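Our platform keeps sequence and structure together, in a single record for each protein. Nothing more is needed to write down the fold, since each code stands for a local backbone conformation. An entry from our holdings is shown next, in its original layout:
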Amino acid sequence: MYTFARGSIGDQAKVIEISRRSERASLCNLCGMTILNRRLATIVGATSLLAICLVVVPPIAQDPLYHVFADGRTLHNVPNFWNVVSNVPFFIVALYGIKALHARRAFIEPWERIAFCTFLAGTAAVGVGSIYYHLRPDDARLVWDRLPMIVVFMSLVASVIGERIGMKAGKLLLAPMIVAGLGAVLYWRLSGDLRSYAAVQFGSMLAVPIILALFPSRYSNAGRMWWMVILYALAKLAELLDHEIASVVTMGGHPWKHLAAACAALLYVDTVARRRPLQARQVSLGQPSFSALLQRQGANQ
């Protein structure tokens, strides 16, 4: 009887312990989903605010002075020499990116490889379009500079969404985002109104750091993405301060914009080439890694 009672008490203790672990796991799961909903609400709120600004702000025309760069010198029979040759690094980045395509563990899902190929093709096309534009800057040529840039932006944002929010979401948004971005550029060219293009460009520039800050990555080396953001911010700053920088460096700020943007793309490409998945493929593709990690932590406690 004594042995039986001790066994019964032991069994009851095991049942209680299992029940407590289940409750902790459920609570952790609920907490994870609550935080997830708040983070998604932040993304939706920022998108809504951008859409409101797009409607409220009056039409924006392309400033003719945009085509007047601080350094317009012709060297070796090449107009705007430094603004032209500074696009060569984009081709180097695209070629280097082929290395990442051979990394088997760099992509969890096949569509991510397609998005990365799109990013590389867009980066190479940026070099072509930017050279074509800077040889004779005007609105007609500027469209060929902006079209590939939008492809790069949209493929990057879709990849970041898939990596950090949900694979299914990134996959579904890839093609529509690229089409919407191209449509924004064409709308500007046909209507002369920059609002849609500005919303797409600056919206994507804001979306990436917001997602990086709110959602953890499914891959290693995720912290390097912040350096990419910083480099691109420096590129935009060099573009805005083109004439001011020219008072210090003759070539102005615009060529440095190209170099900083190419370095940002190179850092992303190298990060993809070196990264490894942090969790198994069996994790639900629609569930962020953040939620899965919370559930796993709760179950182990």
